[in-house]
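pipeline: protein-struct stage 2 | run 1193 | 3-phosphoshikimate 1-carboxyvinyltransferase
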Amino acid sequence: MDLRLSPSLLSGTARAPPSKSYTHRAILAAGYAAGATVERPLLSADTRATMRAVEAYGGTVTEDGDDRHVEGFDGRPDVPEDVVDCANSGTTMRLTTGTAALGDGLTVLTGDDSLRSRPQGPLLAAIADLGGRAESTRDNGQAPLVVGGAIDGGRVSIPGDVSSQYITALLMAGAATSEGIRIDLETELKSAPYVDITRELLADFGVDTEQTDAGFEVAGGQSYTRDDPYTVPGDFSSISYLLAMGVLAAPDGLRIEGAVPSAQGDTAIVDVVERMGGDVAWDRDAGVIEASRSALSGVEVSVADTPDLLPTIATLGAVADGDTHITDAEHVRYKETDRVSAMATELGKMGVETTEERDSLTVHGGESDLTGATVDGYHDHRIVMSLAVAALVADGETTVRGAEHVDVSFPDFFDVLDELGAAPTRVE
């Protein structure tokens, strides 16, 4: 599906969707438990892949209105009867690869063509070092994967600059081993707040973890338990698009609900927008952000811990006066697509000057005139939404290809745009 957008003025109230990161972890944690209820999970293509994986390992996921009740496998996953299809969800594949390592037999995990191109090698090597079997069928560190071996735990070293999800997978599985797992980081940890999210959620499910001088540790023999329902907080990666809409296209202000503080690193988007000169007020107690159209100026921003914010910041930089220099960005190239190159290419089609280097993207807003164009979403929800935001302030009509991929994290994104006054037109 393609989507056409014209320059628009927005106003009103929007609610942030539930956090994708927390939903993945909560559903899987409930699977590791005897059972638990997850309130207001994000229901998207990615999180449904995790729900299917939990069922493949012997759990059940039951719909209860907006909530999901999980009957878990209590730390002892079954060997799936069929291949575990993770679709486009890298989080599902990496986190449930750790689950597969606990099984007595072998699990095959795969996904779509995009997911089959993403790096899994460091996690496979770590599982093998722990005594499990962990192989890429093509021997290239990419899915399809064959994983098993009923690991007991132990000590392992792993790079921290490729994906924090490797650490999350080992911490979540390690609690269910007999010996526990100690993780030594070989390099500086990128996307560290995502490990903070994991540790926060594990504590909510009764699992203790520790940060050590060398990395992280989780003791074995722990049980996942949760008596009260677990409520998923709002998603700040998604809030970034709503916030950008406010400071770019809402002269009378935009109200964003569901912005409750949490361990999410992407809460940094509020500070970034304020540094750029955005008119933003965040009532943390109420979980409400107010944002109004503002004159923005370029800034330098590191995305070492917030890779998902790069597309949003690049879009803001296209409108800002001066240069916006996005640094520490090499790991952003290993997402659903190479997001550094994708944003440089597609903003270029809209008349934006950029300078792309291996580890950075500089957007020359002062040298750019944002104009409508036909742009490609790269089958990537974050590229699609960022380009849609750019279209709101471009001169002329913009067509975004592959708009359906917003279903990965913000299924109602275009309905929200419509309610706020943008009137997007779907082109099948």
